[in-house]
Amino acid sequence: MSLPAAAQTGKSVAPPPALSSIRMQDLKKDVYDLADAHFRGRSAGTLDELKASMWIGEKYRALGLKPAGDDGTYFQYFTLLRHSVNVNSTISINGRPLQLWKDVAIAQMANKQLDEPIHYLGNAALIDMNAVNVKGKVVALEASPEGIAMNKSLPTWRYSRSIMDKYGSILLAKGAAAIIFIADATAERCWDDAVENFERGNYDIEGGASAKLQTTVPVLWLHAAAKQELMNKSAVLKANIVIDFFEYPSVNIVGKIDGTDPKLSAEYLLYSGHQDAHGVRNAIQNDSIFYGADDNASVDAAMFAAARAFKKNPGKRSVLFVIHGAEERGLLGSRWYVAHPTVPRNNIVAVLNGDMIGRNNPDSAAILGAAPPHRNSLDLVKMAMDANLEGPRFKLDTLWDKPTHIEGWYFRSDHLPYARQGIPSLMYTTLLHADYHTPLDNAERIDYGKLKKMADWMYRTGWKIANASKRPATDADFKLER
Ligand SMILES: [Zn+2]
């Protein structure tokens, strides 16, 4: 990425006054504490997440932050809405009962009773989708990897979603009553990972697309071995699928440090991270706790570090620290906060979000939202670029910010709901690694020297925002590609 002209002059700028408050030993202790087995991976909507939230609230209090959540507390509670398959749901083929999740997986939930013949359509890649008549029918087709982009770093359950997007969506639009995918070799390899996700179900908040069940058409996966049975012209699907609905609490933890300027202190720079991780799941290398040290204890620790610095030397503007709940369930905490802000939304001048900032090459990092169409404030990007040159001098990756990047990383963290509201927003990250969303994302594997440089960078940027004479402007032509 080319650097803004001001940054290239190399004129020396005094470092922010409390830079020495960002200390590696504090970052390390905080990551170890928050990513400890005691919190069991902080899964959203569980007591583990709530326990971690109380711990973060106590941390805020010890750091001297003022409560800025609801009712004079650090906490803003909200309700997670979850749909999942009732364990007593029954599915059989030709009278042979299938064991839920072992023999059959439910990829799309619907309350449905069926006793219908099965129409075998063939291999997905070979079907003329325009010609088939599937209206009101139960159809079966064999999955095919042809034309499906598989990236090694993508969680394997995404394969089933890609198959659904490519073939299932057409069959749904044509009025199929139920869809049965027969697993190919790739789907067999992905089976356990996919089942874990299907079994968990959907989470959302009020007003979201998944807050209510959207469909009456179930989508099932069967193993490759079932193919012969499904090809039989007399094959019958009998199903009684029941979907449960649950509500759970989650919480954003919100604290602030007042600014010193009589006027500008009404405005807020917002630091954003998330507290939740992936809880306890299928064991990998004999460990089942998904600690979420990089994702995202690393950022929470950097926010505590910035809080120490701003507490020691406040800026002109106020600083808001929002550690969101339920990010991993679909950015639910940030979507909730931006819809129910605890300070006037127009007074939030910028959001500096971080997600995973303590891994990979020690000299490189990325900010997302730095280039169109993701950039929503050139002013803010300039501040972040200048702060990088004045401080850590990371070599910046630009590929992951591109709309063509397969991961769609820009759309996967808590700055997004703020950006959609037109608030200047950036995401700091050191990007993915092989331990992402596994028990190996643990505190021992964090590069604390790198984490300190990232924390420095986020604090240096925040210091500029807190003291700038004018708040960063939102780009007039900002429009996300989706
Ligand atoms: Zn994350």
In words, what does this structure look like?
- Helix 2 crosses helix 7, helix 2 (24-34) packs across helix 11 (448-467) and helix 9 (378-390) crosses helix 11 (448-467).
- The strands form 3 sheets. Strands 1, 2, 9, 12, 13, 16, 17, 18, 19 and 20 form a 10-stranded mixed β-sheet that branches.
- Residues 1-7 have low confidence and may be disordered.
- This protein has helices at 5-8, 24-34, 47-63, 158-173, 185-200, 227-231, 293-312, 332-339, 378-390, 415-420, 448-467, and strands spanning 66-67, 75-85, 90-93, 96-98, 104-108, 112-123, 138-142, 178-182, 202-204, 219-222, 236-241, 243-257, 268-274, 280-284, 287-289, 318-324, 348-354, 364-368, 395-396, 425-429.
- The chain folds into 2 domains: 5-80 and 250-467, Zn peptidases (Aminopeptidase, 3-Layer(aba) Sandwich); 87-241, Glucose Oxidase, domain 1 (3-Layer(bba) Sandwich), CATH 3.50.30.30.
- The chain is of the alpha/beta class.
- It starts with a helix and ends in a 15-residue tail after the last helix.
- It is elongated.
- Zinc ion (ZN) binds next to helix 7.
Question: Biggest sheet, open or closed, and with what strands and sense?
Answer: 10 strands, mixed
CATH architecture of the largest domain: 3-Layer(aba) Sandwich
CATH topology of the largest domain: the name is: Aminopeptidase
Q: In terms of per-residue confidence, which ranges show pLDDT below 50 for 5 or more consecutive residues?
A: 1-7
Query: Structural class of the secondary structure composition?
Result: alpha/beta
Overall 3D geometry?
A: elongated
The name of the CATH superfamily of the largest domain reads Zn peptidases
Any idea how many domains? 2
Number of helices: 11
Strand percentage = 15-25%
Mean of pLDDT:
94
Helical residue percent band: 25-40%
CATH domain class of the largest domain = Alpha Beta
Radius of gyration: 24 Å
First CA to last CA: what distance?
23 Å
Number of strands: 20
